[in-house]
Amino acid sequence: MGILVARRLLQSVVVILGVTLISFIALHAGGDPTYLFVSERATPEEIALVRQALGFDRPLHVQYLSFVADLARGDFGTSLSYRQPALDIVLGAFPATIELAVFAFAIAIVVAIPLGVVAALNRGTAVDGSITMLGLLGQSIPNFWMGIMLILFFGLYLRWFPISGHVPFLVPLLNGDLATALGNLPRTLYFLVMPGLAVATYSLARNTRLVRSSMLEVLGQDYVRTARAKGLAEKVVVVKHALRNAAVPIVTLGALEFGQLLSGAVLTEQVFTIPGFGKLIVDAVFNRDYLVVQGVVLVTATVYVSLNLLADVAYILLNPRLR
Amino acid sequence: MKLRYLVALVAGLAIVGAAVMMIRTGPRAASTIVVGLSADIATFEPANISSRDNMNIAHHIFASLFTLDLDGQHLPNLARELAISEDGLAYTYTLREGLTCHDGEALTADDVAYTFTRIADPANKFTGNAPGFVFSSIGFRGAEALDPQRVRITIARKNPIAFGLLTEISIHCKDSYEKMPLDQAATAPIGSGPYRLVSWSRGAEIVLEKVGASAAAFDRIVWRIIPEASTRAAELMAGNVDIIANVAPDQIAAINQSGVAAVQSVTSTRRMFVGFNQAEQFGKTPGGRAIRDPRVRRALQYAVDVPTICRQLLQVECQRATGLVNAANANKALSPYPYEPATAERLLDEAGWPRVNGKTRFALTLQAGRGRYLNDVNVVQAIGQYLRDAGVDLTVELMDWASVFQPLLRTRTAGPLFFMGTGGGLWSPIYDMNDLARVDAGTNYPNWSDPRWFSRWDDLTAAATPEETRRIVDEMLQVFYDDGPWLHLYFQPDFYGVSSRVEWQARPDERIYAFDARPKG
Q1: What's the pTM?
Q2: Phi and psi (nearest 5°) for B272?
Q3: Residue A135: CA atoms inside 13 Å, Cβ hemisphere, count?
Q4: Among A27, A37, A41, which would you mutate to test the B interface (most chain B Cβ atoms within 10 Å of its Cβ)?
């Protein structure tokens, strides 16, 4: 088990390094970033000076190796457009994305399970048909379009929820200001309702269908029939015997799901003006602020790889045959 | 049983509803104005600011020596007087009495001189508009305080637009900035303008608060960063925002019908054109050779129906362009080229580029960035079709602005045809013409080299009277109109959404000054 985890950790490091290399090359493929930092009217001499000042005159591999060496020391460099430590900017945006992803994750799990169970228990009825159709619809709707529709209906016409914006919870919490964090919490959740729904729509729909099919499979198993034959109440049969087994794929997929929700937040954050990773990376890519892009990519990749690792470990723990 | 679930559901919804009512934001204070911008800002270090959105906010925090009004006239601001030496190389400003910075430090000539020398100090590695454009354009030499009220700026060569360019410089005090590390200056400005920074939540909002006895009507300005156009429009119609920039044409009707806001359309100073790149590398192809011929360039001016493009795609009657100078300062003898496809065809035939086998004349590529200008993708496609109708075998290449198109522009290798817009001004025709001040200028994107244009810059600099300057400008603009490197299109219309609770006038120069806004009634 220990060797397996160590091997997976090593693989994770290689993957993360590969991600930084690919994003580094991709960002530099667009040409010399110096031109973003000089006036349109700058002379070739002025451009050369700025190029030298920013370190873009060095060969590409030297720039990359220097970046990796700095990274190993925990130095992400200084953002080219913000002129601030890139790591501070990246970590500053991370909590907002985490809040959105956790909220969306909760919706995708908490709502999907009862919906899937109800659909499975009412197989072939109008209730099942409606839930299945909604599931199909949810998987077909792009989340940014869903976001705009939510804004128009619940934000603009009904005025139930705020159209855009974000109230931080994690930032004051991480700064040790518990009172502010708790004071913000109701409004944090209130502001997250619409973006959370927009991000969660796809996962919610997929999970609902997954729970439904998993439940249908489990409900036909001998042990469920036995439980019913023993005279157990239907609620106990469904919740204790069927759902517990049907939920295994949801739990093991959950970690990967969370990673996908993190990346799915990019467009939604733009639509709802949430100052998280999505918004940061869009701005950074447009400004070719490659140190910030690298930081965002690195943190996202690390989270994703870590979650994968956790999912693998959890799966091994749950399934002794894989040990 | 079912009734119990129903009661629980209703009770749950009631609790959620009550909670929502409690945490809903109340109406904002009447003394606060909220402005919705499409792009985030990068810094509050004035010497590193290079974008218009960033500069718009900074102008509320930092004052300049003179300022520009709506009509492009320069008005005294921190300075009350300016004297220019006879040789045009020394600008002496006399400051108003009793100026202070936001930390209470007195603002004197010494502070102004420090502001200028700090920008020019290579150790600071500033790359914003001030060092990169203003200082390089005027050939900044130095700044010195003559006494507490007078400061002298010296430049390397006489420049007819130096005075206007110097108004771009944001002034701050010396003591505070000498102590401040550069990263602190980027986030915690101590300015000299009518508002001070209260908070900056990156990517979300910037809050400013009025300083002392400023004449501005609103005590607080909240700048909200709302990148998505439909979200900005929704926030305006919901009454959460008072002014929004960059309204998409397809949202104009909805805003105007909302009853709570209206769209102001203003002709901006941004000149939209198709450039004919005459770089050597394009001269190897028939199309590249063709556009080096002024007769071909002139013929193509007749091939594009600009008014129809404006009406159909931008939903306004555009201000047409006759050159690179804004209408207020343009050569009044010139009229926009009419749409006459038959004339275009005839002139192309006469220029020696007939249709081969009745089909096309030569091949060209029209390159453009996506999403930079109003409805740019559709405008470019329409222009492409008009040129195809005139017999050009045209390929349209749409590309990402920042990563692909902008590097091509900066290396002057976009094209051979390229669509773009460049910012101009109302205060001087020479400022607008300055993009093509030298053959090797970074902004000479089309690599134009007509000596009838470039040899006249010395005449402009030496002109002794405004009349003489005007005559030379008109002659140069005639050359540009006849044989220039641009296919003249229009001045970009800008759309701003304005709440009915405020009085505010959109400006043509893309500046958003919230201190000019007043509450209605």
Answers
A1: 0.82
A2: -100, 135
A3: 22
A4: A41
Among B residues 226-255, those touching chain A with beta carbons less than 8 Å apart: 226-228, 230-231, 234-235, 237-238, 240
Residues A256, A258, A261, A265, CA torsion sign: negative
Q: Band of the pLDDT at A85, cuts 50, 70, 90?
A: confident
Is A91 an 8 Å CB contact of chain B?
no
Chain-wide mean pLDDT for chain A?
A: 83
| Nearest chain B alpha carbon to A287 | B402
Instruction: Name the packing angle between helices A277-286 and A86-110 (round to 10°).
Output: 140
Mean pLDDT of successive 10-residue stretches along chain B, which has 521 residues: 67 67 64 90 88 89 90 87 92 94 94 96 84 84 95 91 91 94 91 94 90 86 91 93 92 93 94 95 93 96 97 92 92 95 96 91 94 90 96 93 78 92 88 88 90 93 90 96 95 95 91 90 72
Interface membership of A81 toward B (CB under 8 Å): yes
Using a CB–CB cutoff of 8 Å, tell me whether A83 touches chain B: yes
The pLDDT of residue B7 is 72
B309 membership: H or E segment, kind and range: helix B306-309
In tens, the pLDDT along A252-267 reads 677 677 777 777 777 7
How confident is the model at residue B477, as a pLDDT? Answer: 96
Residue with tokens 């709502």: A111
CB atoms within 10 A of CB B169: 23
Question: Which chain B residue's Cα is nearest to A275?
Answer: B203
pLDDT of residue A154: 92
What distance in Å separates the CA atoms of residue A17 and residue B205, rounded to the nearest whole number?
Answer: 35
Helices (H), chain A: 2-29, 44-54, 60-72, 86-110, 112-121, 126-140, 143-150, 170-174, 178-219, 222-229, 234-236, 244-246, 248-272, 277-286, 290-318
Contact B402 A92 (CB under 8 A): no
Six-digit token string for B169? 């410089």
- Judging contacts by C-beta atoms under 8 Å, the chain A residues touching residue B25 are 162
Residue of A nearest to B185 (CA): A83
Q: What is the DSSP letter of A125?
A: S
10 Å Cβ neighbour count for B399? 15
Query: In chain B, which residue's Cα lies nearest the Cα of A153?
Result: B234
pLDDT for position B506: 93
pLDDT number for residue B171: 96
Band of pLDDT at residue A321, cut at 50, 70 and 90: low
What tokens does B117 get? Answer: 């020398």
Q: Does B271 touch chain A (CB under 8 A)?
A: no
The dihedral through the CA atoms of A121, A122, A127, A129 has a sign that is positive
Interface residue A271 vs chain B (CB under 8 A): yes
C-alpha A148: how far from its chain's center? Answer: 20
Q: Is the pLDDT of residue A26 over 90?
A: no
Distance of CA A301 to the CA centre of its chain: 10
Q: Is the Cβ–Cβ distance between A281 and A266 less than 8 Å?
A: yes
By the 10 Å C-beta count (0-12 exposed, 13-18 middle, 19+ buried), B123 is classed as exposed
Task: State the smallest CA–CA distance between residue A184 and chain B in angstroms.
Answer: 10
Sign of the dihedral through C-alpha A155, A160, A161, A164: positive
CA of A262 to nearest chain B CA: how many angstroms apart?
A: 18
pLDDT at site A319: 62
CA distance A153 to chain B (A): 10
Mean pLDDT, residues A14-31 taken together: 79
